[in-house]
Amino acid sequence: MMHMTFYWGKSATILFDGWRTSTWPDYLLSLAALLLAAAFYQYLEALRVRVKLVAGGGAKPAPSSIIPPPAGSDPRTPLLAPAFAAGAGRWPARLAVAAMFGVNSGLGYLLMLAVMSFNGGVFVAVVVGLALGYLAFRSSDGEDLVVVDNPCACA
C-alpha cells in the first residue's frame, strides 16, 4: 500500500518496486545513497554553472522585451536572438551545457519522486544531502548569483 501522508519507519519503497527496504541496514544504506545523490545533484549544478560561465554564457543583459530593437531591424530578431547569438564556435559548449541541464533535471525529478514515497527519513536524507551539497559545492563563490536560469528547485 502506498502512503499518502508522511510516516516514519524502515519499510519504504523508493522509486520502483525493486528498491524496497525492510531491515534497518537496507533502510540506512538507502538513506545514505539518497543523501549522496542529492549532494551529487548540487555538484552537477555547480559544474554546469561553471561550464556555462567558461563558455561565455554568464550574466545576460536585460530582456529584449524591455529594450526596444534598433530602428530598421526586423521585429522578429529579438525572439530569435538568444538561439542564434552564440555563433558557430559556441555550439559544442551550448550542447554540453544543455546535456548537463538535462541530466541534472532528471536527477532532480528522481529525487523529487523519492521524496514522494512520503517516508520521513527519505525526506530528511534528500534535504540534508541538498544542503550539504550546496555548502560543499555552491556556497563559496557566488556563481549561482551570476547565472539565474530558472528558480525551480529541480532545474
Could you characterize the architecture of this molecule?
The chain crosses the membrane at residues 27-44, 109-137. This is Copper transport protein. It is a multi-pass membrane protein. With 155 residues, the protein is mostly helical. The chain is built from 5 helices and 2 strands; from the N terminus they run E-E-H-H-H-H-H. The chain has helices at residues 24-54, 77-84, 91-115, 120-137, 143-146; strands spanning 12-13, 20-21. A two-stranded antiparallel sheet has the order 1-2. Strand 1 (12-13) and strand 2 (20-21) form a beta hairpin. Mean pLDDT is 81; it is low at 61-66.
List keywords for this structure.
2 strands; mainly alpha; copper; 155 residues; transmembrane helix; 5 helices
